[in-house]
Amino acid sequence: MAEAGPHDPVVLVVTGVSGSGKSTVASLLAELLGLPFADGDDFHTRESVARMRAGHPLDDEARAPWLARIRAWIDARLEAEEGGVVACSALKRGYRRTLIGDREDVRIVYLEGSRDLIGRRIAARRGHFMPAGLLDSQFAALEPPGPDENPIVVGIEDGPDAIVAAVAARLGRTPGDACG
Ligand SMILES: Nc1ncnc2c1ncn2[C@@H]1O[C@H](COP(=O)(O)OP(=O)(O)O)[C@@H](O)[C@H]1O
Ligand SMILES: O=C(O)[C@H](O)[C@@H](O)[C@H](O)[C@H](O)COP(=O)(O)O
């Protein structure tokens, strides 16, 4: 399939470890581009949320049905010819493969930041089930996307607006031409 043009529907999967800013950046990006937004956090089962809240990381088996539900959301957005933006850690290459396959109308945005910076942001975050103590397990599982995955890689040192602007510029999209 040819790479999606600036007027073709596209789904952006905003990835990175817990606390890297996925929910913040993905929701702002969706707003800027006029696209539907979904948060991967909302696709977990109650059991998975309780497991993380209790300080135990998910494993491949627990993540598989979660990834399948997010894949279904992506498929539905493309089926509707609308596109969308979804926040999902998608830590491992295999997980991104599940979400995206070979499709070029789904792009990975990878939020890259140091353990130190992200640790501080998680420590300051309130009202979220994910404990700071799970950050090491997130980095242990992390397989940053390689060049063959054609990711849009952005550092997270700047504020959310600057990050969102950088992603939109890399996409060559401006508000109003996001989904044809
Ligand atoms: N670029 C940024 N600069 C400063 N703070 C940020 C930035 N992005 C996110 N945050 C804050 O960091 C915390 C983690 O962000 P969040 O979007 O919840 O991350 P994730 O969805 O990856 O877990 C939140 O408190 C959020 O307000
Ligand atoms: O696969 C996982 O281990 C979890 O899905 C995790 O990666 C995800 O990040 C959580 O949903 C926590 O939520 P936040 O990323 O919003 O902290």
From TrEMBL:
Keyword Cell membrane: no
Annotated EC: 2.7.1.12
Keyword Flavoprotein annotated: no
Any Gene Ontology CC annotation: cytoplasm
Pfam families, alphabetized: SKI
Family: Belongs to the gluconokinase GntK/GntV family.
Name of the protein: Gluconokinase
PANTHER family: GLUCONOKINASE-RELATED
Pathway: Carbohydrate acid metabolism
